[in-house]
Amino acid sequence: MSIDEIIAKGVAAAVKELYGIDADPATIVPQATRKGVEGNLTIVVFPWVKAAGKAPEKVGEEIGNWLVDNEPAVERFNVLKGFLNIIIEPTFWCSVLHHIAKDDNYGITPVTEQSPLVMVEYSSPNTNKPLHLGHVRNNLLGYSLSCILEAAGNKVVKTNIVNDRGIHICKSMLAWQKWFNGATPESTGLKGDHLIGDCYVAFDKHYKEELKDLQAKGMTEDEAKEASTLMAEAREMLLKWEQGDKEVRDLWAMMNSWVYDGFDQTYKRMGVDFDKIYYESDTYLVGKEKVLEGLEAGKMYRKEDGSVWADLTPDGLDHKLLLRADGTSVYMTQDIGTAKLRFDDYPINKMIYVVGNEQNYHFQVLSLLLDRLGFDWGKDLVHFSYGMVELPNGRMKSREGTVVDADDLMDEMVTTARNVSLELGKLDGLSQEEVNDIAEIVGLGALKYFLLKVDPRKNIIFDPSESIDFNGNTGPFIQYTYARIRSVLRKAQADGIELTDYSAVVPNEKEIALIQRLADFPAVVDDAARKYSPALIANYVYDLVKQYNTFYHDYSILREEDPAVRSLRLAICSVVARTVATSMRLLGIRVPERM
Fold first, then answer.
1. Of 77, 104, 109, 496, which sees the most CB atoms within 10 A?
2. What CATH number has the domain spanning 444-586?
3. Same CATH fold, 444-586 and 3-89?
4. If you ran DSSP here, which 8-state letter would residue 359 be given?
5. Are 557 and 570 in contact (CB under 8 A)?
């Protein structure tokens, strides 16, 4: 039982005996006592004041006295207004540490057959371009959230929906036919997704040139767009695709296969994966059928031009187009189809969509429509809405080729990590293979931590040089601290130092603070899962390593002469290292054993 649970159970027993109040210990949540006030844990007593018929200070005093008399973990207390500040008996912290140390999975809730199933959708790339910096944040958030939800006791299915059809795909296909002379990833030495991205950029370049020529002949911009032969050819290709034209479909399948190979390489290096991948080319017709079912049931309506709509005005929204007059689908229809296939495949209890905040309205509408069409989880779907990633010089535009490519970014991060680490002497004495491995771990760790430590709802201006710093709130700072602890533990093992009984040791203030922070870990994981916020894990582990570094600086560990005190400190080192590794794993970040 954790210290929080012990105190909660004790307080529940106190209010029952003192005031006859039945309080569920699960509803009593001790908080860390704020700085400047004596205490380890604080209980808010206001919920029982009315039933007790006494002033808050009196209620706090009576509960505090009961705890001192009946709970061995409580040494003394003080009361400030309605806040009961509890001081834990110092040696009790040793038993808390021992409890944490013997549980290799401390903070992780086991998944059982009865655990709810949560599906998390993330990535959602288009097959006309490689993944870019915006996709990186999406993938890292989705993967980390999936890890955190599983750690909090949920079954998790990680899923991806690939946007593999539409006019944007046809633009790349047409460009490849016209200007790329049968180029392949093998003939060019390019990753498949990069080759197709170049095709997409080429189409936009030639399209703009065509519009410029038409406008030079006296056309307005709108007239030029209407007269564009390039855009007309792209639309014709899309129509042929939808009609199942073999030549177009074969070209589409070949080029998409190149892109998928490229995506797989990027995902693998980024350290993210999926349990199930869906493709819009498979889902859009299913969505159309589902919408037509809703139309027959009177849940949708058809306009005179043949288009199908949903009236969402009773829900405070507007009318939403679901099928165009020519019967073709819109994105909303495709999402409905994807939901149908997912619901057929899995007994989903909760669905979480990791999509940027520019799609907030889309998911409001989708939630209402799924609920209207009979999906149990529709009304309660979660749109994990996150902010955009921008560069110091502004937003990115993929059609103009000005995006920060995910592969190039990862290369740059690893190169920078290698150079910075070498300059600081962090890699001295290591083999070239070890240097390369650590540079990869540190470079990608810096990138991931920088993007995950911020509240997901906020926009980020990404600065690669700022992210690779061995001081401050960065991934490398945390990774280096972990490596330092592992070095201490290896030295202890090499010296034959064994842990002895430390239960009678009276920990000092910094040791108690560290043990208490370690004891907080399960609550932090649960809070991060409940609030859908990897940032809570990131900031927890940063605070933990800051505290550890202060402790490490102020106290001897291996040179401590008292075997019991030395054992206590080594146990703290071991549990801190394990908790750091677990926390970073929940963020999708590896930690190096040596640096």
1. 77
2. 1.10.730.10
3. no
4. G
5. yes
Distances (CA, A) of 208 to 169, 224, 381, 399, 547: 18, 10, 41, 11, 57
398 — pLDDT class (breaks 50, 70, 90): very low
Q: Which two tokens stand for residue 328?
A: 């073709």
Phi, psi (rounded to 5 degrees) for 379 = -70, -25
Asked if 564 contacts 502 with a C-beta cutoff of 8 angstroms, the reply is yes
- The model carries a pTM of 0.91
Residue-wise pLDDT tens digits, 118-168? 999 999 999 999 998 889 999 999 999 999 999 999 999 999 999 999 899
Domain ranges of the chain: 3-89, 444-586
pLDDT at 397 over 80: no
Is 274 within 8 Å of 159 (Cβ atoms)?
yes
The CATH number of 3-89 is 3.30.1360.70
Q: So what's the pLDDT on residue 402?
A: 53
Long-range CB contacts (within 8 A, 24+) of 484-489: 484/552, 484/595, 485/548, 485/573, 485/576, 485/577, 485/580, 486/577, 486/593, 486/594, 487/594, 488/557, 488/558, 488/570, 488/573, 489/570, 489/573, 489/574, 489/577
Among the listed ranges 356-365, 374-383, 419-428, 570-579, which one has the minimum average pLDDT value?
419-428
